[in-house]
Amino acid sequence: MVPVRKTFFEDPLFPFEYVYKDTKSPQSELPDHLHDRLEIVYVYSGTGTFFINRSFYDMKAGDLFIIPGNTIHRAIPDPQLPVTSTALFFAPILAAHEPLGDTYSSLSIFEQVRKRKFYKLETKQPFQLQLEAVLGEIDEEHRTGLPGSRHAIMLLLQRLLLLANRMAPADVPGVVPDVHPGPPWIKDSLRYIDRHHADHDLGLSVLARHASVTPAHFSRVFKQLTGMTVTDYIHAKRIVRAKELLLATDDSMDQIAFRCGFESLPHFHHVFKSLSGITPGVYRRGGLQTGLAAPDE
């Protein structure tokens, strides 16, 4: 299954959307997907598993997930006790603010989780009550549509990001996710793909050999646990890297395609458009025009 490109109602003046206190069954939850927006997910109740980037996380009440743009992720609710959660989606520009003489940046929490490759914050009282209150106010402002509601939502978003930044530990060396479903080689293989996704020979046979299992067994278990084929997952990782290079370098399309592991420029264009909905050239021009910065690796 190719990762779904989640679509948004594009409003360049207010790039913000949310889903408030939604309870989804496994059948109604989106499959693996990625998008350019920043995403925050807060869990009120229920249990499940969250697959983010290359790791699996328990989902339970009070968990806060910070998901940078262009990160493959999928929530897997427990069919017996499905998760109720709120999700916010917004462009970085919406949370931009002028420096006030200190080092604080509201978006630093996204850089922290990306660099640590650990996307979950376990909240405790009184932070849970504060988070739920802010999310409730965002919903009320949106529903009432009173004058200044957009400004109010921007301020509330800044408040939410401040809480998240304060909750995030200063340093978490050696942190590992809560959940390790499947055989041990799955975790090792996801890490291997993360490091070698640009290798031109990377594929099912290489990964199966590295895991010391047959290609058929590797393929079956990998799709069962991640919801994606090996090829689709590698393509998604390569396109995420390509987006970074398109915005951060002046490399030609041929150079970027080669650096990301694609054998030909037409294949790169085809995969990029299937996952992003636009061509690499349009993505580069749009990103540079809006000042969208490429995230750190």
TrEMBL record:
Domain HTH araC/xylS-type residues, every copy: 187-286
Pfam family, one: HTH_18
UniProt keywords, alphabetically: DNA-binding, Transcription, Transcription regulation
GO molecular function: DNA-binding transcription factor activity; sequence-specific DNA binding
Gene3D superfamilies linked to this entry: Homeodomain-like, Jelly Rolls
PROSITE patterns in the cross-refs: HTH_ARAC_FAMILY_1, HTH_ARAC_FAMILY_2
TM annotation in the entry: none
Protein name, UniProt field: AraC family transcriptional regulator
Organism: Paenibacillus thalictri
Top-level taxonomy: Bacteria, Bacillati, Bacillota, Bacilli, Bacillales
